[in-house]
Specification:
- The chain has about 425 residues and is α+β, with helices and mostly antiparallel strands.
- Among the domains are: about 160 residues, HUPs (Rossmann fold), CATH 3.40.50; about 120 residues, 3-Layer(bba) Sandwich (Phenylalanyl-tRNA Synthetase, Chain B, domain 3), CATH 3.50.40.
- The relative contact order is 0.08.
Length: about 425
């Protein structure tokens, strides 16, 4: 008889959230926990997500609700109403784990347990080997993952799916089978149906060899993480990678730095990122252009701006704007321009104008092709674009940076950067004072 105590050390009064799909794996996990509940006085919270993609989903949700009532288990559920991601499995996983995380915090639980088993680990490792990853990615997933305030635990990782199904039959544990797991259109299903049976014919305990392989890679990854963290202390400032410093590191460590950043956007499942993506990012670092970018899966944007390299999630589309100025304007770049009565400094954040020399009202807008400014103290004009480049203003900042013009289209001020010939000294005649905040 399989006992879960063999795979994990429980403590008195543990609070455990269990991700349960009603499949044979998760129902076996629930039953194993029920068998030791009284011994350890466990609080067990069943967490079920209705993925809403099969007609059987609602039947399964109703079943697990009734099962929990029968066995006096706490029950939490949610239904995914719609999907917006191109990768269904990835989006479903993100929603699922966010729900699990919220439930853990609601009950102040110390463990989130899932029924991942040895076959799952084999599939994940094989998929990542084919797709490309780093050492941590090639290791598949860990038995225990530290989260803020709790642990994700996969206690069944050394068992096979067949062993769990046999456990269910022996213990009369009810479960549902997801027919979509048989469809060849899903990558994981093809590994499950065609690759794993071959490997198991070669060695019935091959899943334990994969588990050993996974642990070895994880141990190596821990060592490499220490070296990577030292490199990041040299190369990273305020979540921004310094390009010149990054390029001095060994290419292997460069890749590890990138994977370290990408974990924040793809969590502990980096299967969406492959070797081609990493090579594109490395090419971006080596690119001589001052401003360039690469689009990554799930709306993540990698941007290089001069010596700074950053990742941005869910980037809003850049929009232009044009505002007729009165006394105050709140700008899309989160700054503002206001009309003031007096000011003590003469920085580029202040502009003094004489209304007799310009045409009112003033207009605040984004840059346009061909914009030029007649700079104070300089004969002739200069392209606003060149001023941005000289000041090393990034491309995305330029798109939203305000330019102040009079009604005849004369650029009178580039706030915070450059004054025009229309700007007045404090000793000259003026009747308008603008301040950029």
């Amino acid at each position: 008889m399989i006992s879960i105590e063999k795979f994990f050390s429980f403590h008195e009064n543990d609070k455990i959230v269990v991700g349960c799909s009603t499949g044979p794996d998760s129902m076996a996990l629930v039953d194993m926990l029920l068998k030791i509940r009284d011994k350890y006085h466990l609080s067990i919270i069943i967490c079920h997500v209705n993925h809403n993609v099969r007609k059987e989903s609602y039947q399964e949700a109703e079943f697990i609700k009734n099962y929990c009532n029968l066995h006096h288990l706490f029950f939490e559920t949610m239904t995914i109403e719609e999907y917006g991601d191109d990768n269904f499995h990835n989006e479903a996983r993100n929603i699922r784990y966010q729900f699990f995380d919220n439930t853990v915090k609601k009950y102040n639980a110390n463990y989130l347990m899932t029924a991942h088993h040895g076959d799952d680990l084999m599939e994940t490792i094989l998929m990542r080997m084919v797709r490309g990853s780093n050492l941590s990615g090639y290791s598949g997933f860990k038995k225990i993952v530290e989260k803020e305030g709790y642990q994700i635990v996969r206690p069944l990782i050394s068992l096979t799916k067949q062993e769990l199904i046999e456990y269910d039959y022996q213990n009369k544990v009810p479960f549902f089978l997801d027919k979509s797991n048989e469809k060849d259109k899903y990558t994981r299903n093809r590994y499950r149906k065609y690759i794993l049976p071959f490997l198991k014919e070669e060695d019935s305990n091959v899943h334990l060899k994969f588990l050993k392989f996974s642990k070895a890679l994880n141990d190596s990854s821990v060592f490499i993480d220490k070296i990577t963290k030292d490199a990041m202390k040299r190369c990273v400032r305020d979540n921004t990678i310094l390009v010149d410093c990054f390029l001095k590191e060994d290419e292997f460590i460069q890749k590890e730095i990138l994977y370290s950043f990408l974990k924040d956007y793809y969590q502990d499942d980096l299967i969406l990122i492959n070797d081609k993506h990493i090579e594109l990012l490395l090419q971006l670092f080596r690119n001589k252009k001052a401003n360039s970018f690469v689009n990554l899966p799930n709306d993540v944007l990698a941007k290089k701006t001069y010596n700074n390299f950053t990742f941005v999630k869910d980037v809003d589309a850049i929009t232009s704007y044009e505002i007729e100025f009165d006394r105050y304007a709140l700008l899309p770049n989160k700054h503002s321009i206001e009309l003031v009565d007096s000011v003590d400094n003469n920085s580029n954040n202040v502009c003094r104008l004489n209304s007799k020399e310009i045409m009112l009202p003033l207009i605040i807008r984004t840059r346009r092709m061909g914009d030029r400014i007649y700079i104070k103290g300089l004969n002739g004009s200069k392209k606003v674009k060149d001023i941005f480049i000289d000041k090393k203003i990034s491309a995305d900042e330029r798109d939203l940076w305000p330019i102040v013009l009079d009604s005849q289209g004369h650029v009178v001020w580039v706030p915070g950067i450059k004054k025009s010939k229309f700007d007045k000294k404090s000793t000259e005649e003026y009747d308008i004072i603008l301040r950029y905040n």
